[in-house]
Design brief:
Structural class: alpha+beta
Distance between the termini: 12 Å
Strand content: 25-35%
Strand order of the largest sheet: 2-3-1-4
Order of helices and strands: EHEEHHE
């Protein structure tokens, strides 16, 4: 049986002077994402040893709903908001269940 889920692991290295603003915005965006049809899970976490690195682990039920998610105004707004607050480009990994 084919699994059509989209599973993402994203690391965002935030400039320390912006971490509190980014956290606030990320939490608000997460709350909206969790309401989306097709969002199976969305975990916003922070590395203990590197607290300026946020880690997002998300599971979407299909590519179509993942693509729809990426087009939402609040997702686009969050990525736009991050532009001058990142130390490095986001590290995005796509995963599959085994």
């Amino acid at each position: 049986m084919k699994n059509n889920k989209i599973i993402t692991h994203v690391e965002l290295q935030i400039n320390p002077e912006f971490i509190e603003d980014v956290l606030s915005n990320a939490i608000q965006t997460k709350d909206l994402i969790l309401l989306e049809e097709g969002t199976e899970s969305f975990n916003l976490t922070r590395k203990i040893e590197e607290p300026d690195i946020l880690v997002i682990f998300a599971v979407y039920t299909s590519k179509e709903l993942y693509d729809w998610h990426l087009e939402q105004s609040y997702v686009k707004s969050f990525f736009s908001f991050l532009q001058d607050k990142l130390v490095a480009p986001p590290l995005v990994t796509y995963l599959t269940e085994v």
